[in-house]
Design goal:
Layout (H helix, E strand, L loop, with lengths): L9 E8 L9 E4 L5 E3 L5 E6 L3 E7 L6 E6 L4 E8 L28 E6 H7 L15 E4 L9 E4 L7 E5 L2 E2 L16 H4 E8 L13 E7 L7 E9 L3 E9 L7 E12 L8 E13 L5 E9 L2 E4 L7 H6 L14 E4 L2 E4 L2 E5 L2 E11 L2 E21 L18 E2 H8 L5 E3 L2 E3 L9 E3 L8 E2 L2 E5 L5 E22 L4 E22 L5 E4 L10 E3 L20 E22 L2 E18 L15 E15 L4 E12 L3 H4 L14 E13 L3 E13 L3 E2 L14 E6 L2 E14 L4 E15 L2 E7 L12 E3 L10 E14 L2 E14 L17 E2 L2 E14 L5 E10 L7 E4 L13 H9 L12 E3 L4 E9 L1
Parallel strand pairs: 1-7, 11-14, 21-26, 29-34
Antiparallel strand pairs: 1-4, 2-3, 2-5, 5-6, 8-13, 9-10, 11-12, 13-14, 15-16, 15-55, 16-17, 17-18, 18-19, 18-20, 19-24, 20-23, 21-22, 23-25, 24-25, 25-32, 27-28, 30-31, 32-33, 33-36, 34-35, 36-37, 37-38, 38-39, 39-40, 40-41, 41-44, 42-43, 43-46, 44-45, 45-48, 46-47, 48-49, 49-50, 49-51, 51-52, ...
Length: 927
């Protein structure tokens, strides 16, 4: 007699937490099978098992994977509450497999770090700009700048985003010519980000990146996410509307996987005249071999967009003029108006920057792993603005403003086509034709013969045109990293970093605004006759980035080429409670400039040789875990950073700067961490010294044998020191009530005085007879970012899956952006401190479970930012104190001095106010 037992099916249940709260969306999979599910909002899961015993593997972004055994009795197996070890700075192997991505590890990597997970980005970002999700991170200051879609900027520890390394899946994305990051080009990142990590200070990146202030690591979704998808739509004030859909196949039995996301967003903008439209696409394809030796990932993502802008910072008096003394019109936009009955803005940005990457991870054996990524980016687009003027008046001068402050573009068009007059220089002026054509040009001066009876009536007085400064590029790169475990305690990394970049820079005419032609006299080979152009090019997004269009170029036309070759290595020691590392990188950057506008084709300077400059970094650090709750760390590093492209070739000329020197950055840091079931906290101390900072100044004033606009100035000996303390903490008061807080206090100052030298534009030779001037910068505060920030936030689950949350963010010790050119006296007043401000945000979430097994959900989210409609100044472009004020309105001048909002500020300061109250609502279906 044969007895057999057949097991049909059972259920495995449990709850996943991180020790302080539930983990919704954690992946739970039966080991050795494709059976998997994810936890619900409360961290609970139910899994169908086809065997009576086995193991489940739990993984969640930012936590260590965990394997738990189960045994089914009576049809169920409850594994209870499973706590994942906090590893909030390491992405689980299911999400990130490549050692190319430099993700800091909690209680292991000795750097100051904060991690923002996808769930928080999805819930709280709403219609804010992508960098704004970092607003409650220590030592981070984010503003919307002019307020256009994607025009936000970010500072970390007082350093702007040109000095912050931004990495996407290990790929550097800072512009290779100037280090800039244009967030409008990455507007779709919020949709595809799995986690974003901010490493303040020199960071853990092995590359020789420009991370003076910090590194932002962004890890996108991968192809092998669990099967499922979502649809969502959202809307907010300013007629903001967004729709999005995504689907993931999960890893199929044949090893293939795919993930696709598409979205579209549009709106009028909070600021009048800042309409926008953007798309986003993300495609990831993957393949993993059954033996787990090879994993391949192909990812393509892009976010073509256009948006009108507010680029001009108005004075406080102007905001008051078009509002009131008590309530300035913070939305005033001096760049927008109406043309032919429709709203028109001459300032516009349009860009498409797709990025493709191919990752190959090869587990050679148990101790050796090779990770490689090949990537390419082709950016196409421009920023549109105004060119020309009328009798010295630009498009938003007072002669073209309507009583409500909007630009009268109809008046500009009438002047350009000869049907209207403009009042300037004391009389109504009219325009005459040149050769039967109303001619526009890029000059605001007058180049033709004038009327001797009235020297202001010149038939070549420029009209006003819309032109675009094209900044397109082709960028290709490769990162290869070999990770070798030398012993049970030592691991060696070695890799190479190669990049090549070509930037295309020129200007085209978009709209003659009624003019008949555009006269350009900038091509050396066509002087003095110049060119008469009638061709115009629409400000449309170029979807086909492989199409290199042939434009009629004006004003300037140059190509910048950058070659980067680097090597890096890291040796890490890890045993018991101690982890230590030493790291080094070296890179050679080569810079080449081509210019057939300024130079004749036969001129050697029309195409230069590569100017090669060496740079690199060295870093070391150690972390010691005192016990399971306490850890301490220290790190130190030194960077020798090559100058940017415009420092090598200053003033848009092809003569190499004779005074090239690398910038030197030295950083020291120490920190303490505390982890418990109910409370987590970190404290960091830092000191960063930035020496030999390059800064270019303005031209010398005309006179004493110097012609106007033929010189430029440079600063030498410009040094900064940034020191401070940071705190970050979170706690679960109860299972339903969570609190988080942060505090940072910085002392960011210039160190020592600097010198200003003057050079001729044509050949970079010193200006004859000029004596270097001293600028008195010692102890002057570094501007453009709040040196003291604090926030406290809380969330409370009032009912099952119904949560309300709120956050208060405070900013103080915020100084105006300043130019050292104004500090020519030893008794200067220093940096202008702007008034402090605090903002209160609130949110509401509800998740409704649906589907037969409650494995689907409908999610509702409401965000209200700046709930109390606080009026505040987010940044100032000028540094004018109240007692220096010369106001066109005496009452405004008094008000600017005495009112709390403007105390100490002259009403002549050019500022951007922050946004008032904004809101957005999102509805999402997950399946």
């Amino acid at each position: 007699m044969i007895v057999s037992t057949v097991f049909s099916q059972g259920k495995v249940t449990g709850t996943i937490t991180d020790g302080t709260g539930s983990l919704p969306g954690a992946n739970v999979q039966i080991k050795g099978s494709s059976t998997a599910t994810s936890t619900d909002f409360d961290g609970k899961f139910t899994l169908n098992a086809t065997t009576s015993t086995g193991e489940i593997v739990i993984s969640y972004l930012g936590y260590e994977n965990k394997t738990v055994k189960f045994t089914v009795n009576g049809g169920t197996a409850n594994v209870g509450t499973i706590t994942l070890e906090s590893n909030s700075n390491e992405l689980s192997e299911i999400v990130v497999k490549s050692t190319v991505v430099d993700i800091a590890k909690d209680r292991k990597t000795p750097v100051a770090v904060s991690t923002i997970k996808a769930a928080e980005i999805k819930e709280k970002l709403g219609t804010q700009e992508f960098p704004e999700i970092l607003r409650n991170t220590p030592s981070v200051y984010v503003t919307k700048s002019g307020g256009g879609f994607g025009d936000a900027r970010i500072n970390i520890r007082g350093f702007n985003q040109n000095n912050i390394a931004v990495m996407i899946n290990g790929m550097p994305v800072n512009d290779m010519e100037n280090g800039s990051v244009y967030w409008s080009n990455w507007a779709g990142l919020s949709d595809v980000t799995s986690a974003m990590q901010v490493q303040r200070g020199l960071g853990s990146s092995k590359l020789a990146t420009p991370s003076v202030g910090g590194t932002i690591n962004i890890v996108t979704k991968s192809s092998d996410m669990k099967e499922g998808g979502s649809f969502s739509s959202g809307f907010g004030n300013g007629r903001n509307f967004k729709i999005q859909g995504s689907y993931n196949t999960g890893k199929l039995e044949n090893g293939l996987s795919a993930s696709v996301l598409l979205s579209q967003t549009m709106g009028d903008g909070y600021i009048p005249g800042t309409q926008f439209e953007g798309s986003n696409y993300f495609i990831a394809l993957g393949y993993g071999t059954k033996d787990d030796k090879h994993n391949f990932q192909l990812t393509v993502t892009g976010a073509p967009q256009w948006h009108n802008q507010r680029s001009t910072a108005s004075t406080i008096a102007t905001y008051q003029k078009y509002g009131s003394l008590a309530e300035p019109n913070i939305r005033y936009n001096p760049d927008t108006g109406y043309l032919n009955g429709e709203q028109y803005n001459i300032r516009k940005n349009y860009y498409h920057k797709p990025v493709a990457s191919f990752n190959w991870d090869y587990n050679i054996n148990e101790t050796t792993k090779l990770s490689s990524v090949l990537y390419a980016s082709m950016g196409r687009g421009a920023g549109a603005s105004a060119t020309g003027g009328i009798g010295g008046n630009v498009y938003n001068s007072s002669v073209f403003l309507l009583p409500n402050g909007m630009v009268d573009y109809d008046k500009i068009q009438a002047w350009n086509n000869g049907t209207g007059s403009v009042f300037f220089n004391g009389a109504n002026r009219t325009r005459t034709q040149i050769g039967g054509v109303y001619q526009n040009s890029s000059s605001t001066g007058r180049t033709g013969a004038g009327n001797t009876a009235d020297p202001y009536v010149y038939n070549t007085t420029s009209g006003i045109s819309q032109t675009s400064s094209i900044n397109s590029h082709d960028w290709f790169g490769a990162l290869i990293n070999l990770n070798k475990k030398l012993s049970s305690t030592l691991t060696l990394d070695f890799g190479i970093d190669a990049r090549t970049y070509t930037g295309y820079h020129f200007t085209v005419v978009n709209d003659l605004l009624g003019g008949g032609e555009f006269f350009d006299n900038n091509i050396a080979s066509l002087k003095p006759a110049g060119r008469h152009l009638t061709s115009t090019y629409a400000t449309n997004v170029q979807w086909n980035v492989f199409d290199k269009r042939d434009y009629d170029k004006i004003s300037f036309n140059s190509t910048g080429k950058v070659r980067w070759y680097g090597a890096f290595t890291q040796l890490e020691y890890s045993k018991d409670n101690l982890t230590a590392f030493v790291q080094g990188a070296i890179s050679q950057q080569g810079f080449k400039r081509e210019d057939n506008f300024v130079y004749l084709p036969t001129d050697p300077l029309a195409s230069t040789d590569y100017e090669n400059i060496l740079g690199g970094n060295a870093k070391a650090g150690a972390n010691y875990n005192i016990n399971e709750k306490h850890n301490v760390y220290v790190n130190a590093g030194y960077y020798s950073r090559q100058p940017f492209f415009n420092s090598v070739y200053p003033n848009n000329r092809s003569t190499v700067n004779p005074n090239l020197t690398n910038e030197k950055i030295t950083g020291f840091e120490a920190g303490y961490g505390f982890r418990s079931r109910f409370f987590n906290a970190t404290v960091n101390l830092y000191n960063t010294t930035w020496n030999d900072r390059y800064l270019k100044g303005n031209a010398l004033p005309a006179g004493n044998g110097i012609a106007a606009n033929t010189t430029y100035t440079e600063f030498t000996g410009l040094n900064e020191v940034h020191s401070g303390i940071e705190f970050e903490g979170s706690s679960n008061i109860t299972d339903k009530f969570k609190v988080n807080a942060m505090f940072s206090y910085g002392i960011w100052e210039y160190k020592g005085n600097a010198s200003v030298n003057a050079y001729y534009q044509a050949d970079n030779t010193p200006v004859a007879g000029y004596t270097a001037a001293t600028v008195y910068m010692d102890k002057v505060k570094v501007g453009d970012a709040a040196q003291m920030t604090a926030s406290v936030g809380a969330s409370y689950e009032v009912l099952t899956r119904v949560t309300v949350d709120a956050n208060y963010n405070f900013n103080d010790k915020l100084y105006a952006g300043l130019s050292p050119t104004t500090f020519t006296s030893a008794d200067n007043k220093g940096a202008l401190q702007l008034p402090s401000y605090g903002l209160f945000d609130a949110g509401f979430s509800y998740k409704m479970l649906t589907g037969k097994n409650k494995d689907k959900s409908v999610n509702f989210r409401l965000n209200v930012n700046n709930l109390f409609d606080k009026i505040y100044i987010a940044e100032s472009r000028t540094n004018i104190f109240a007692d220096d004020n010369v106001s066109s309105n005496a009452a405004a001048g008094t008000y600017a001095s005495n009112n709390r909002l403007y105390r100490g500020l002259a009403d002549g300061n050019q500022v951007f106010f922050g946004f008032g109250r904004t809101w957005n609502f999102t509805l999402r279906y997950d399946f």
